Amino acid sequence: MISVSTQTYSGEIVLTGCSGLLHLQPEGRDVFRIQVVSNSDVRSPIITLGSTSFFHVRINNLYVVAVTKCNANAALVFEFCYRFISIAKSYFGKVDEEAIKNNFVLIYELIDEIIDFGYPQNSEADTLKTYITTESVVASSIAAEESSKITTQATGSTSWRRGDVKYKKNEAFVDVVETVNLSMSAKGTILRADVDGHIQMRAYLSGTPECKFGLNDKLVIDKSERTGGDAVELDDCRFHQCVRLDEFDSSRTISFVPPDGEFELMKYRSTTNVKLPLKVIATVNEIGTTQVSYVVAVKTNFNNKLSATSVIIRIPTPLNTTSVDCKVALGKAKYVPAENVVVWKIPRIQGGQEVTFSGTAKLTSTTNRQVWARPPIDVDFQVLMFTSSGLIVRFLKVFEKTNYHSVKWVRYLTKASGSYQIRAQHAPHFFNRMPLQISTPEQQLVIDDASPRLAVYHGGR
Amino acid sequence: MSSFRAPPRKGENFELAADLNSEYKDKRKDAIKRVIANMTVGKDVSGLFPDVLKNMQTDDLEQKKLVYLYLMNYAKTQPELVILAVNTFVKDTDDPNPLVRALAIRTMGCLRAEKIIDYLCDPLQKCLKDDNPYVRKTAALCVAKLYDLKPELVIENGFLEQLREMIADSNPMVVANTVTALSDIHIAAVAAGVPRDQFAITTEIVNKLLVALNECSEWGRVAILTALAQYEAEDSGESEHICERVVPQFQHANASVVLSAIKVVMIQIRGISSENVSKTLARKMAPPLVTLLSNPPEVQWVALRNINLLLQKRSDILSNEMRVFFCKYNDPLYVKVEKLDIMVRIATDKNVDPLLSELKEYAQEVDVDFVRRSIKAIGQTAVKIDEAAERCVNVLLDLINSRVSYVVQEAVVVMKDIFRKYPSTYEGVIPTLCANLDELDEPEAKASLIWIIGEYAKKIDNADELLGIFVDTFTEESYPVQLQTLTAVVKLYLQKPDSSQALVQKVLNTATKDCDSPDVRDRAYIYWRLLSTDPGAAKAVVLAIRPPITIPRTTVSAALLDELLGEIPLLASVYHKPAETFVGRGRIGADSVQKKDPADDRAAAQKALQTVAAGQQAENLLDFSEDPTSDGQPSGLAATTVLTSTPAAANLLSGTSSNPLDDLVSIFGSASLNATPAAPANGNPLGGFGFGASPMSASPATPSMLQPATPQQPQPQQPQDDLLGLF
């Protein structure tokens, strides 16, 4: 009972896909346009007008809109909208007005397939690609046989994998990517530090492989089982639908038949023993009403064999800043007037190193005492071969009936983008809240099938 | 392909018709694409119906799909012509290719034309028994489509029995779609008033569902979990068993699966007798709930609204997780607002310090609405946690010193509640508040400050002077401020009769003679009579000790809360309102039947109330497909917004009031009448004249009749939270 449509930012309906029931008439589109698109003050992603509810998700300059007149499952509707976007991305590479306009026939076909009578059906892009293609399918008798296979697979218990996958070289890549979220108060107290981890897998394995996956020996997944000490503790984890949840629940083993190609095997969250790769100490002083001086020190907090790369530190300045005089020992710092920040870029910082930025911002006198939001200092960075949570991959075993040899690679990356924030210490009240963001590099591990020992490789794979 | 969307040319349809009849295959297909493109942008291409139909019989699957798409769009307007397509459809359901069979049966179900339905039954019968699971799962949903159009056909053909058998199908997706279809039919049947239970879930079915649960797709899991939530377990053991099987789903990557699993557990937990087991289950719920916050903002918001509900039932589940609800700088406002509410809910004397420093930060941000809510949250924390009240007051004082107008005003409003909760504790703050007297321009802030002055008139030396300012401008003030001034002056007079006789005389005179609000006049008369007949009684009434206020633990009634918990994560649980309030009758509106039943009366009452409350904002339950022209006023469409912004509507929405009159009265700022019987019982002749809308956080128990001195906030724009708190 939901129908989906996409609209451009200007409110033009590019496409309305209907699940056969609720046809959104032009009047309905107008209402949505007036209430959401041209309303600068939309304060909820769901809007109910009369008895019709509009769910919307914005992507680039498009709105993906789901409409219902029922007491629909709100979480499902949004998950479905995001799934629609990811399917479209996997088909067209990008989701924008042009892609939608150029592929409207295909999108109709897709919507018709992934949702029926308002109920989502098969939404695995990989399987969909086997029978919804950009080339025309001719319904010959050979095709009929082929279709039988496809349909059985699309509805089977491993709907995410085709049965006939073949590779010359059987390989699996595992990327452990951790995003560190930090919110630090001006006084240096950690308000919030946690890790959002993703284990991304690219499986290029023939046949129907059965995989078993092992993490740290000292891994605690339920808080109540906590032993304390140095064990890696995960607050919660979530798995791709291929993982057998009942088995995980009973014996804590992660076993699955992977989809072909890239997928997100696992997501996890950790809030204990989070190692912060970068420490930032910032002091901001207002000197009269015409100057603000900054001292920002960044210290790397990991082994000196590793290094943080692509470090970008954004230091907010007042809105009436005219120029900033920057002094840095490493990297480049530049005032970006459009964003009211000083952007300090450092291509690489070694472990154990400390670098400092000092600068003075000159302010114009202004009659308009516009309130400054005092955003926090924000740091982006990447650290390869490092995990903030301490999580490591112990083994990945692949079993297949042909018993082939497979090569497995592991890589670790800890990064931050947009959520590593440090509020600077401001002398007078009017400054406050600036985030710092940090980002990090990568590492590789090769796991041999025979021995669950880990080899570490630097550089490319 | 972009050329398909070129602007219309003269006689385009004529050209298209020619191309559709072309002898070349490619040209025909190209023409169909252009027809669909025109249809998409809203041009009328229904005239090409016969020409398009000719292209239906083809080996090209893509072309077939396009023609079907066209048919779906126009079948309703051209039912006679659709008959011509029936043969091809029926033939296609026998095609060797399962994709074609499924496509045909899927499309036939979507052609909402009366005439074609009769031809649907035979092929459907066949497809339900198809060898191919893909066809079966499509056919299962088709039964639900058929029921929606002509329920009697489904029953006559025995499709329901067939569906019930299909629950045991070997293919998980077929099971999931069968469950979906049965649930859908069940809902439709209940809505239509069919007494027979269409989908009774038995123990046997539950076991089958639990087996299928681990094998089917994420969407199928949602369907199965939704069905499981309907089941009433026979005993505690069975409930435990179901929970045990459902809990692994907490680890699923799809938020709707997680939330649906939580719903099942929340429902089954009621039947579990062992305290330990239910505690363990509640504890297991916390981590997945927190993880939901790493989703995209829209999903986060849905999760937060549901967490808010869950906390009303089990306030303890997230008490250790305060920090994850801290607002991120770049969260959308709707997420921030929900987080604020949840943080106050899980605040305890142990975690209040980080909360307060966080709230103080928020109160210095730029978004006015968010700042106000943050300040309000500080006030709620103060009222909720006695030990933290002093720290809250200090934070508020810091904020007042910032002298940002809206910050000061909101802080004053909040201070009033703190004074109400902790009388005679923070008098030291009063000078600071009064110093900002000139900055106040919002009625609510003014009214709050006046209430504070009146309350502490005895201790403020120049109270008469301060109140004099408001008495001088009495007629220019808004009604809430007038009412408050009136009460405060009377309080002042009762406490310091010597110095304020002239003032009280003046205010009573102005209020009874020059004021055009009947409420203000009436209250002035009552005071006048009270004061002139029996000053002792006046003291007893005006200076009575007020019952303490508390933060309501729930925003909805207990019965509604239970109902809503069963609807996680449906729209109802997101809105915290029962489904009837926002869902029209008939799922697609088009076939809504006008029935005379109490619900209608209620809806009518609601309609009337909204008109009264919202003035020009006329409510209309707009039906997009049926009657778009009846109301083109976009400003009047925001029915839900209107609903939440009036006390009366909130009353109706929370499902607690049966008498529309209650609501009419409450719109005008009076106390709800349910307290009326209590007043005469107290032997107070004034009981009937309730002026006192309870202050922000007053509990339902507040006998507001006897509290003319209670702060007045009769304007209907009160935030929803507070309104719901009244019930």
UniProtKB/TrEMBL annotation, chain A:
Sections of the chain in a coiled coil: none
Organism: Trametes pubescens (White-rot fungus)
Record-linked SUPFAM superfamilies: Second domain of Mu2 adaptin subunit (ap50) of ap2 adaptor, SNARE-like
Domain MHD residue range list: 169-423
Pfam family, one: Clat_adaptor_s
Cellular compartment(s): Cell membrane; Membrane, Coated pit
GO biological process: endocytosis; intracellular protein transport
Main location: membrane
Record keywords, A-Z: Cell membrane, Coated pit, Endocytosis, Membrane, Protein transport, Transport
Protein name listed in UniProt: AP-2 complex subunit mu
Membrane topology annotation: Peripheral membrane protein
Homology family: Belongs to the adaptor complexes medium subunit family.
GO cellular component: clathrin adaptor complex; clathrin-coated pit; plasma membrane
Nucleotide-binding is among the record's keywords: no
Keyword Transport in record: yes
TrEMBL record, chain B:
Gene Ontology MF terms: clathrin binding
Cellular component GO terms held in the UniProt record: endomembrane system; membrane coat
Localisation per UniProt entry: Endomembrane system
Keywords from the named record: Membrane, Protein transport, Transport
Low complexity biased stretches: 692-710
Gene3D superfamilies, sorted: Leucine-rich Repeat Variant
Disordered: region residues: 685-727
SUPFAM superfamilies reported for this sequence: ARM repeat
Domain Clathrin/coatomer adaptor adaptin-like N-terminal, chain residue ranges per copy: 10-534
GO biological process, one term: vesicle-mediated transport
Origin superkingdom: Eukaryota
Name of one Pfam family that matches: Adaptin_N
Homology family: Belongs to the adaptor complexes large subunit family.
PANTHER family: ADAPTOR COMPLEX SUBUNIT BETA FAMILY MEMBER
Protein purpose: Adaptins are components of the adaptor complexes which link clathrin to receptors in coated vesicles. Clathrin-associated protein complexes are believed to interact with the cytoplasmic tails of membrane proteins, leading to their selection and concentration.
Descriptive protein name: AP complex subunit beta
The species this protein was found in: Trametes pubescens
Organism ancestry: Eukaryota, Fungi, Dikarya, Basidiomycota, Agaricomycotina
